[in-house]
Design a protein that fits this description.
Length: 232
């Protein structure tokens, strides 16, 4: 796997080629104009030195042709390098996705699970959460997420196929923060990170809070009030 600066070499070579050939092209244009003016004002003299004249014209014509073919070659190399760079980035691009779910060993606790479904490691991960549908439940979840170290300080690295899980609240504690409002709303968790080449990447996970409320354990769900019996 090649570092990112390797793919910038064709661009630098193309720039240097222009810097090298620019003064040469100016000289060629000057002598071409001088030769054209000489032949224009002395149309009979060039027949006496026809071989030398043709040699000079051919030499002047070779310089632009050499520049043209060198430029085409560098453009082809640059296009191939961009294709290889894109292909390699796709093979190492991390893709992060966040979900809210009950903890596996303690279902009454809620955890943030951040998974890397890509093919490369994510570096310098930074997370942020905000409500999309501003409801009391969504705002309570966003406020509770701020206590996680992954949200407050981020993660150094998350390998491909790895999942980070962090418990940030309890179902009962969370429900008490927005009671008697219903367990609904939508939040967005944004992740910004870098791939192994240092390129910036970003993903967003839009989560429905009502789906999380449906996973609340029965023992911690609010008890239904018994209906009053009607006496006739």
């Amino acid at each position: 796997m090649q570092p990112a600066h390797v793919f910038r070499r064709p661009y630098l070579m193309h720039t240097r080629l222009q810097q090298w050939f620019a003064p040469i092209l100016y000289i060629v244009l000057f002598f071409t104009g001088f030769l054209a003016a000489f032949l224009w004002f002395n149309p009979r003299d060039y027949l006496q030195n026809l071989a030398a004249t043709l040699t000079a014209v051919a030499a002047l014509a070779l310089v632009p042709l050499a520049y043209f073919f060198a430029r085409l070659s560098l453009q082809h190399r640059a296009q191939t390098s961009r294709y290889l760079e894109t292909l390699q980035q796709e093979h190492v691009r991390p893709v992060l996705h966040a979900v809210l779910r009950p903890a596996a060993d303690q279902p009454h606790l809620i955890e943030l699970a951040l998974s890397n479904h890509g093919k490369g490691s994510a570096h310098a991960v930074r997370l942020s959460a905000e409500p999309v549908a501003a409801t009391p439940a969504a705002e309570a979840v966003v406020a509770s997420l701020q206590s996680l170290s992954a949200v407050a300080g981020g993660l150094d690295i998350l390998a491909a196929g790895e999942t980070y899980g962090g418990v940030f609240t309890d179902f009962d504690i969370l429900a008490a923060r927005f009671a008697p409002a219903p367990f609904n709303g939508i939040i967005k968790i944004s992740a910004e990170y870098q791939d192994c080449f240092g390129n910036l990447c970003a993903t967003e996970s839009v989560l429905d809070i009502s789906a999380l409320g449906a996973l609340r354990p029965a023992a911690h769900a609010p008890a239904r009030k018994p209906r009053k019996k009607l006496l006739y």
